Amino acid sequence: MTEDLIAAAREAMSRAYAPYSGFAVGAAVRADNGKIYSGCNVENSAYPEGLCAEAAAIAAMVNAGAQKIDEVCVMGRGDSLVTPCGGCRQKIREFAAGSTAIHVCGPEGIRRTTTLDELLPLSFGPENLK
Q1: Of 86, 71, 82, whose CA–CA distance to 111 is shortest?
Q2: What CATH number corresponds to the domain at position 96?
Q3: What band does 48 get if pLDDT is binned at 50, 70 and 90?
Q4: Chain centroid, CA 91 distance in Å
Q5: 42 a known binding residue?
Q6: Is 73 annotated as a binding residue?
Q7: Per-residue pLDDT tens for 20-47?
Q8: 1 has pLDDT over 80
Q9: Residue 78's closest CA among 105, 45, 112, 113?
Q10: pLDDT at 108 exceeding the cut of 80
Q11: pLDDT above 70 covers what percent of the chain?
Q12: Active site residue 54
């Protein structure tokens, strides 16, 4: 059920710490254990030291003992699609299959659903190191 994933991303977005850009982002991942882990972006006055919402959600998932993502939701405001940045696409890749659904949402709900392979074609992953 994707609605619970969207609700978790929406709630996380409401907690974002974005005093500099004013651009709040929330993310939620559903792990293979069925549990949802969420995160929000956290800015820092030393700009490159901020944390993306997707990275925060993945860290919460790993901290809870899960290591496989089954579904992702990323939510931001505005008219443009708020997709994961390049670094977060790679972070998602570490724990997700190419066919993993990534729901790009606004506060109203899903704007587009894509797959990790569509967002990060010809990606480098753990199997490349074997």
Answers
A1: 82
A2: 3.40.140.10
A3: confident
A4: 9
A5: yes
A6: no
A7: 999 999 999 999 999 999 999 999 999 8
A8: no
A9: 105
A10: yes
A11: 99
A12: yes
Calculate helix-pair angle for 53-63, 86-95, nearest 10 degrees: 20
The DSSP-derived string for 57-100 is HHHHHHHTT---EEEEEEEE-SSS--PPPHHHHHHHHHHEEEEE
Query: Any known ligand binding at 37?
Result: no
Is 11 annotated as a binding-site member? no
CA–CA dist 79, 3 (Å, integer): 21
Cβ atoms of 110 and 6 closer than 8 Å: yes
- Distance in angstroms (rounded) separating the CA atoms of residues 114 and 68: 18
Catalytic residue, candidates 49, 54, 94, 118: 54
| Spatial CA neighbour of 100 closest among 82, 77, 127, 123 | 123
Q: What is the pTM of this model?
A: 0.95
How many domains are contained in the chain? 1
**Chain center to CA of 85:** 9
What H or E segment, with its residue span, contains residue 119?
helix 116-119
Tell me the average pLDDT of the chain: 96
Residue-number span of the structural domain to which 97 is assigned: 2-129
Return the H-helix or E-strand segment holding 117: helix 116-119
